[in-house]
Amino acid sequence: MKHTISILVENKFGVLARVAGLFSARGYNIDSLTVSETQDSAISRMTVVVNASDEQVLEQIKKQLNKLIDVITIIDFTKKDYIERELVFVKISVDKKDFVRLKKVIGRAKASVLVRKEDFCIVELVADQEHLNNFLGQLKDFKLVELVRSGRIAIAK
Amino acid sequence: MDRKGLFMAIMTGAQILIECLKREGVEVMFGYPGGVVLPIFDVLYDAKLKFILTRHEQGAAHAADGYARATGKVGVCLSTSGPGATNLVTGIANAYMDSIPMVAITGQVKTFLIGNDAFQESDVTGITRPITKHNYLVKDVKDLARTIREAFYIASTGRPGPVVIDLPVDVQTSKTEFIWPEEIRIRSYQPTMEGHPGQIKKAAKMIEKAKKPILYVGGGVISSGASEQLKALAEKNQLPVTTTFMGIGAFPGEHTLCLGMLGMHGTAYANHAIMDSDLIVAIGARFDDRVTGRIDAFAPGAKIIHIDIDPTSISKNIRVDVPIVGDAKEVLRDLIGYIKKSPDIKMWLGQIEKWRKEFPLTYKHDDKLRPQFVIEKIRELTGGDAIIATEVGQNQMWSCLFYQHNQPRTWISSGGLGTMGFGLPAAIGAQIGRPEKVVFDIAGDGSIQMNIQELATAVFNKLPVKIAILNNGYLGMVRQWQELFYNKRYSSTPLKNPDFVKLAEAYGAKGLRVTRKDEVAPAIKEALATDNVVMIDFVVEPEENVFPMVPAGEALNRMLGGMA
Fold first, then answer.
1. Residue A72: closest CA among chain B residues belongs to which residue?
2. How buried is residue B439: exposed, middle or buried, by Cβ count under 10 Å (0-12/13-18/19+)?
3. Labelling B262: which of B28, B42, B343, B362 has CA 20 to 30 A away?
4. Which residue in B has a C-alpha nearest to residue A25's C-alpha?
5. How many helices (H) and strands (E) would you count in chain B?
6. Residues near B124 by Cβ (< 8 Å), separated by ≥ 6?
7. Do B312 and A63 touch (CB under 8 A)?
8. Do the Cβ atoms of B186 and A59 come within 8 Å?
9. Which residues pair with B474 in a beta bridge?
């Protein structure tokens, strides 16, 4: 099962390596990882989506992360009321006819076209996982050139 | 002037380092010089800090580790960059696996050269990240004093462990005002000391009602200094105690409630007792694979209370019913208070005594010189009071079975990592920390050769360490596995050894050789009477095995041999 975890860490040299190293050394799988500053420039936030087979593994991941000296706190969104979003860019190869069809899909998904050139376009969508996967499913009929995903971020309500 | 009316001193990084070490109470440092640590060695030249020059950086790390185990203080080692630092790595990993407080200082190339593959450059923080509790690369001399203070704090508190400080040579020579941080507070590091009262009360109730309880005690009791509390808990409630390898000495080995070590090479009665128990109270232990055997068959009828300062140890390998995060000493003190009536376990203690009689710890008593006999004699002639360091393998397992330790910090052996070559340098560290004690390194003919160069360190520093080589002409433990599981195909395990007596003499130590049973006691007596390093080559029965033994991956009560 997938779990979204926020890790607040000291904004120090090497912290990302410590977190990443922990995941690889202990054989945990990361689905996505984002890192950025917070309102406090001394603190960074890592949002990690982990794949844990059971509760015990998830607990162990959280405890191991907490044990890292530079980790300040961990927020596990699993049992929380929270909002999550991910940004995707999709570069799609389209001719005029395809584009008409594509615009309908884009409209329904509330995605937007950032760039439109003669033979391709770049589409952006910010959405939660369900919408996003839905949207990407509908793009299967089109010729995707490149898909870029930001990884999830989340905030508790 | 600062607040205390002292003139603030402008100091170099190297001076700050040594000043900080002194203020941290460091008495001795182990290490080896090299190019990028010259500024530090120049300060050491007239500093009042004992520096022990080992003959290999690995020896320095193990010596610092042995010192820490024997004294409870932080062990400190120092090396140059590149190969000096990578030579420390095994010693750091060893300390990490056994939760030993250590600060390792490594030189590094100049800050502006880092990442350029400079001469003797290696990414030390990168290499040591998974084998340290924490590590630092100090890029600014202004951060140095605080970093050192933090390093000692982190190494010695919570679940102890090694911390590396990587110190570029230009930081060692840069100058700044020396400011000693009186207080250290790290917002992201605050170990839980006191256990949750609700959980401890729950544990107390479970102990009161238990029919077949057992205390399963690990190294955490030693690092917490909780031996007295453990003894009180056990004696007050007549609870039987089994220790892990790392827990040896936490509870008196000769105590009637002591079942000795459990696990792969544990006593049969300890293994039967834990497997048949209905309540396991784990204290500062981590249910590792050498202890549990086949995990799904481990103690099927037992509820588990787990006391540990490290939350990650709890419910890692085995599901726990009552977790208690906290320092063993504080939790045990509270727990003793909460137990209102001792459990009624006469039947259980009777059953354990039956196992003790049925499956005693023994070996064949005949005319042959057997390694167990040598260890028993060492124990007898040192009154069970020596510090015993060991190497790794059969020598180590026989030592923990046949030298019952009554005191904590007298058993110095590489547990988690199982590092051959640990014993001799660790014995040197222990002897420096406890000069009044007799220190023995019980070794195999294989592992003694992994850090044999440290004989020079011991002799030069007049450290009268005694080395007992149980020389069976094999890498004995591997040979034992080959005998039992690989049809006696002794692949690369027979050894052709040097003449250990001559070798000892070449180093300026005394060498003795023993080939017969009746020579054992006189040789040990002679060693004890000699104020020098003594290496005794005990030429023992070549194919003696360590029994009992639980084959890897088997349930704990499926032991081989050693019950006759």
1. B188
2. buried
3. B343
4. B130
5. 21, 20
6. B81, B85, B106, B108, B135, B137, B164, B166
7. yes
8. no
9. B494
User: Which positions in chain A touch B188 (Cβ < 8 Å)?
Assistant: 9-10, 69-73
> Which residue of chain B has the CA closest to A65?
B312
Looking at the complex, report in whole angstroms how far the Cα of residue A93 sits from the nearest Cα belonging to chain B. 42
Tens place of pLDDT per residue across chain B (564 aa): 445 545 679 999 999 999 999 999 999 999 999 999 999 999 999 999 999 999 999 999 999 999 999 999 999 999 999 999 999 999 999 999 999 999 999 999 999 999 999 999 999 999 999 999 999 999 999 999 999 999 999 999 999 999 999 999 999 999 999 999 999 999 999 999 999 999 999 999 999 999 999 999 999 999 999 999 999 999 999 999 999 999 999 999 999 999 999 999 999 999 999 999 999 999 999 999 989 999 999 999 999 999 999 999 998 889 999 999 999 999 999 999 999 999 999 999 999 999 999 999 999 999 999 999 999 999 999 999 999 999 999 999 999 999 999 999 999 999 999 999 999 999 999 999 999 999 999 999 999 999 999 999 999 999 999 999 999 999 999 999 999 999 999 999 999 999 999 999 999 999 999 999 999 999 999 999 999 999 999 999 999 999 999 988 899 888 887 543
Which alpha helices (H) appear in B183-258, and where do they start and end?
Answer: 197-209, 219-224, 227-237
Are the C-beta atoms of B287 and B318 separated by less than 8 Å? yes
Task: Give the distance from residue B126's alpha carbon to the nearest chain A alpha carbon, in angstroms.
Answer: 8
B533 vs B527: CA distance, rounded Å = 8
End-to-end CA distance of chain B: give it in Å, rounded: 76
DSSP letter at B255 equals S
User: In angstroms, rounded to a whole number, what is the distance separating the alpha carbons of residues B122 and B115?
Assistant: 9
Cross-chain residue pair A63–B311, CB shorter than 8 Å: yes
CB-based contact B460:B509 (threshold 8 Å) = no
CA atoms B245, B246, B249, B250: torsion sign: negative
Q: In this structure, what token pair is assigned to residue B535?
A: 């290496």
Interface with B, mutate which of A26, A69, A72 (most B CBs under 10 A): A69
Give the whole-angstrom CA distance, residue B375 versus residue B536: 12
3-state secondary structure B323-341: EEECCHHHHHHHHHHHCCC
What's the gap in Å between the CA of B190 and the closest CA on chain A? 9
Which residue segments constitute the domains of chain A, with CATH numbers given?
2-80 (3.30.70.260), 83-156 (3.30.70.1150)
Q: Which helix (H) or strand (E) holds B394?
A: helix B394-402
Other C-beta atoms lying within 10 Å of the C-beta of residue B10: 10
The dihedrals phi and psi of B359, each to the nearest 5 degrees, come to: -125, 65
Looking at the complex, report in whole angstroms how far the Cα of residue B154 sits from the nearest Cα belonging to chain A: 9
Q: Are strands A2-10 and A43-51 parallel, antiparallel or unpaired?
A: antiparallel
The DSSP output letter for B227 is: H
